[in-house]
């Protein structure tokens, strides 16, 4: 006796589901075979079409071990999902500005419905989840693999175990405090471990190039802009320093007008081309074009941050998003930033896995003199401790060095530097 047919994958399909004539005929052949208690496998459908004089119809299947209809349904699901979204977008384009909110809701609803159509995800038993992660835990503990990419700074590495896949990392500071330079430094370090994509929505490509040459050649970056300022012996070595970066998989997308969706699209293509991504960095939230400019600014920013977290999960790599702090914190008695100083958004804490707040301070040394240091406050850390440490930022050559042995004690040693 033959096994009963598993026809759960035919649910929701009818002749009306198809538009093309050939697809309708293939479906009719499948229906006929099912009515006779037979699986609609590839060879049987082809034979039936030939018997009906329709042998000009090309029937293809990705996997010969799967009944034809399963493969057919997968294609159909995607077509139906696309039609839903296309229809919603068409209606949206014909909507007046007064009804833009309803139009956006309709598009979002269509996208959610499309996702439900094509999704084949199923819950995983917790015991299976533990078993799947056993090898990962053993390898991490044996030092065979890292939990995340190495940040290059011992204290940050101790606190976070590196920036891990699917994490959203927020790097926040007031303007001119060094966040873009530090983000670029992270990218430079992590690119030695795998491909990194940096979205520079504020700095130009030339500025990034000169900063990088300044870092590798140890030449003050502003000197490159002034005739005769750079020693000829350094100039003759420029090509050598360029050659050093030839194999470095660090890529830059520079544009002043990108939406979160465009950032995501570019990152997806990049991962498809390179096979992997060690990190994505976006400089900065304020330069990302919001989905709906009519919404209040905090809601716009929340949408951007939410999209960046979704991108980290989708691409299975850390995403670093630069963010501004409120300017008025410098007027406080203690101007060290707090999580509440994150500009335009209370959503950062909800979506971010790691939040680092930067602040320049004058630190007293053992001999009584003071030195400018960049305080890095790991204020939120979902998978580890929160703590502070200092970096020495040599702005002239755009380089950072961790100051081991100088412990931020939470007291304000002197007034922080403004703007």
Give structural notes.
The chain is of the alpha/beta class and 419 residues long. It is built from 13 helices and eleven strands. It has helices spanning 21-35, 42-51, 68-93, 100-118, 126-141, 154-160, 179-190, 205-217, 232-235, 238-244, 260-274, 297-315, 348-351; strands at 168-173, 196-200, 250-254, 258-259, 279-283, 288-289, 319-324, 354-364, 370-381, 387-394, 399-402. The strands form two sheets. Strands 3-2-5-7-1-8-9-10-11 form a nine-stranded mixed beta sheet, sandwiched between helices. Helix 1 (21-35) packs across helix 2 and helix 3 runs antiparallel to helix 4 (100-118). The radius of gyration is 28 Å and the shape is elongated. The N and C termini lie far apart (81 Å).
Beta content: 15-25%
Low-pLDDT windows of residues: 62-67, 410-419
Main sheet, how many strands, which sense, barrel?
Answer: 9 strands, mixed
Question: What share of the residues lie within helices?
Answer: 25-40%
**Integer-rounded radius of gyration:** 28 Å
| H-E order | HHHHHHEHEHHHEEHEEHEHEEEE
Describe the SSE topology.
Layout: H1 21-35, H2 42-51, H3 68-93, H4 100-118, H5 126-141, H6 154-160, E1 168-173, H7 179-190, E2 196-200, H8 205-217, H9 232-235, H10 238-244, E3 250-254, E4 258-259, H11 260-274, E5 279-283, E6 288-289, H12 297-315, E7 319-324, H13 348-351, E8 354-364, E9 370-381, E10 387-394, E11 399-402
Parallel strand pairs: 1-7, 1-8, 2-3, 2-5, 4-6, 5-7
Antiparallel strand pairs: 8-9, 9-10, 10-11
Helix pairs in contact: 1-2, 3-4, 11-12
């Amino acid at each position: 006796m033959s096994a009963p047919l598993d026809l759960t994958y035919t649910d929701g399909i009818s002749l009306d589901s198809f538009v093309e004539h050939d697809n309708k005929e293939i479906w009719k052949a499948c229906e006929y075979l099912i009515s006779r208690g037979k699986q609609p496998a590839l060879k049987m459908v082809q034979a039936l079409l030939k018997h009906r004089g329709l042998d000009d119809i090309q029937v293809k299947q990705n996997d010969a071990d799967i009944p034809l209809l399963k493969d057919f349904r997968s294609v159909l699901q995607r077509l139906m999902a696309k039609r839903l979204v296309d229809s919603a977008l068409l209606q949206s384009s014909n909507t007046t500005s007064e009804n833009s909110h309803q139009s956006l809701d309709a598009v979002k609803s269509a996208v959610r419905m499309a996702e439900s159509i094509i999704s084949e995800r199923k819950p995983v038993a917790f015991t299976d989840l533990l078993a799947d992660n056993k090898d990962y835990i053993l390898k991490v503990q044996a030092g065979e693999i890292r939990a995340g990419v190495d940040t290059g700074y011992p204290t940050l590495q101790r606190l976070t175990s590196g920036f891990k896949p699917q994490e959203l990392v927020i790097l926040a500071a007031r303007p001119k405090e060094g966040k873009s330079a530090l983000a670029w430094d992270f990218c430079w370090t992590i690119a030695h471990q795998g491909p990194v994509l940096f979205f520079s929505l504020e700095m130009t490509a030339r500025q990034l190039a000169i900063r990088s040459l300044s870092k590798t050649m140890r030449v003050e970056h502003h000197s490159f802009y002034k005739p005769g300022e750079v020693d000829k012996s350094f100039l003759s070595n420029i090509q050598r320093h360029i050659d050093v970066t030839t194999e470095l998989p660090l890529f830059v997308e520079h544009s002043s007008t990108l939406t979160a969706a465009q950032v995501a699209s570019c990152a997806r293509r990049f991962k498809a081309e390179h096979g992997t991504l060690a990190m994505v960095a976006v400089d900065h939230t304020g330069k990302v074009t919001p989905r709906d400019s009519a919404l209040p600014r905090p809601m716009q920013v929340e949408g951007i941050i939410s999209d960046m977290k979704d991108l980290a999960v989708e691409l299975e790599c850390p995403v670093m998003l630069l963010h501004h702090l409120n300017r008025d914190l410098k007027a406080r008695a203690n101007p060290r930033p707090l999580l509440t100083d994150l500009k335009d958004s209370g959503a950062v804490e909800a979506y971010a896995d790691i939040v680092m707040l930067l602040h320049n301070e004058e630190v007293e040394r053992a001999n009584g003199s003071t030195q400018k240091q960049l305080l890095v406050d790991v204020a939120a850390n979902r998978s580890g401790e929160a703590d502070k440490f200092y970096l020495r930022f040599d702005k002239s050559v755009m380089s950072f060095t961790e100051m081991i042995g100088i412990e931020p004690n939470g007291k304000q040693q002197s007034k922080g530097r403004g703007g």
